[in-house]
Automatic annotation (TrEMBL):
InterPro entries in alphabetical order: KR_dom (IPR057326), NAD(P)-bd_dom_sf (IPR036291), Sc_DH/Rdtase_CS (IPR020904), SDR_fam (IPR002347)
Name of the protein in question: (3R)-3-hydroxyacyl-CoA dehydrogenase
Pfam families on file: adh_short_C2
Family affiliation: Belongs to the short-chain dehydrogenases/reductases (SDR) family.
Keywords annotated in UniProt: Fatty acid biosynthesis, Fatty acid metabolism, Lipid biosynthesis, Lipid metabolism, Mitochondrion, NAD, Oxidoreductase, Phosphoprotein
Any Gene Ontology biological process: estrogen metabolic process
Organism: Clastoptera arizonana
EC number per UniProt: 1.1.1.239, 1.1.1.n12
Main location (coarse class): mitochondrion
The Ketoreductase domain, residue ranges: 2-186
Pathway membership: Steroid biosynthesis; estrogen biosynthesis; Lipid metabolism; fatty acid biosynthesis
Top enzyme category: oxidoreductase
Keyword Lipid biosynthesis: yes
Amino acid sequence: MILALVTGGGSGIGRATCLRLAKDSAKVIVTDCNESSMNKTLKLLPGEGHMSLLVDVTDYSKILSALKDITNHYYEPPNVLVNSAGILRDSLLLKMSSDMFRQVIDVNLNGTFNAIHAFCQTLVELKKPGSIINISSVAGQMGNIGQCNYSASKAAVESLTKTVAREMGKYNIRCNSVVPGFIKGQMTDGIPDKVKEMFKAQIPLQRFGNAEEVAEVIAFLASNKSSYINGANIPITGGFR
């Protein structure tokens, strides 16, 4: 049985992932720092046995506490971790404050590390296998104007993924990431229509993706069907490079 802890489950790729995993009969723990959004996701999930927990991924003690609550509730720890919590604080370099840069790194990178560390520590102590799926971005591979903070955080997540995979493989804990391109939602909503068309022209499939398409790959990486995939950063970009 898949028991999945999803951070940032209140919206976007996180919500789509919760729904997709629940359709596969997984039990899903929806976490977010927005209680209203988190509980809305919980209500949408098919099946039974799901739960929600208010978690700030930048606070390591809150993640440890959540893992203890989950283990006590289900009598076992989660065996899948999806690190979907992330924020944007876009600005051109010369206008970006140190606070804007730090906030994005703190959630997108440090928050991912915090969740991975607590998850792995719990599973190793209990001698349980697991699968970690991180959310990177094509911006981390190419850079993106106005997103030096976001691009840096996502590039670091890819390196973190590879290192965790090397270290934790001997414990039968896999770690992979998905690398979305232009996905409909928060990342594309603020782009002017003319600029959207310009970007679409550079994508071989000539369209933006959607969160459900990303969630399909995450569900595959969470399952035993991907049991020999470890340390991979899988692009979901429509061919955009």
